[in-house]
Amino acid sequence: MPSPQPPRAVFAMDPVHLPLLFPPPLMARLRRTADLDPALAVRDFGDPAVADALAAAEVLITGWGCPHLDAGVLAAAPGLRAVLHAAGSVRSLVGEALWKQGVTVSSAVTGNALPVAEYTLAMILLLGKDAFGHRERYRRTHAVPTPAETAATGNLGRRVGVVGASRVGRRLMELLRPFDLTVLLHDPYVSPAEAAALGARPLPLEELLRHSDIVSLHAPDMPETHHMLDRARLALIPDGGVLINTARGALVDQDALTEELVSGRLRAVLDVTDPEPLPAGSPLYELPNVFLTPHIAGSLGNELERLGAIVVEELERLAEDVPLRHEVRHADLARVA
Question: What does the pLDDT average to over 162-177?
Fold first, then answer.
């Protein structure tokens, strides 16, 4: 019996990402598995120069910079049967037309969760040692702190409130296990027994905020979570508490948070903001109690190869007609990122 023809695949993303997502060994595996032009990365599905490639495409390998996948894509690629996304969420990428057509969608979001969880873990441990505050004071005074000045410092028993048992939230709780920390969790979809299995104590959001030294956000951006930390809820965080946001800026009322940070009552580690980036005149760029980074917690540099490897494995499974490991179900989009 002749071997089945390899599926025809097309990249759809900003081509700048291709070398990091698919370095030579991974690109070689892709080319062994699919009929694919490694030099073609579609940025415009209406471009006549890519019409023939799309007309034959069965698989789109997408990533950052891919245009929205709507009915126009189905018209350009009538044989499309799978989208393999070499990045995170597909919520805003895949339109209703593709779901209705039954196109299989897979995402490397699980691979992207690890660096975000690692970044958050690092911040939690540094915050417990007040590393950022000590750095600021040391730069200013050139003096070693006294025991009295470090009495409230340390990670033993520090209470970490995790908001959202998402992929990142779950990975973070796994990474927190070896440390002498108390982990609290708010997630309306997680039962008390499941929370206990994750090593966390479940609490309503307001109670979690009241009892956490550090609050870390890992909830999806949905209408129900928009500004979930508003002025009233931010006020529940104890004086000197810290907010870490590596999820989405829209989860927090930015104006209310800015007021809290300018007052000095709270501290924050913000990898995401609303808007992103913040306006040039925002005081958050200069505040000593704010550690602000430009959306770097997710996969960067050599970490992109992890996402590419997931996509390669998914393509190999697709070619072998076996179930994908990272398939995204349309019904799950209501409560995942």
Answer: 97
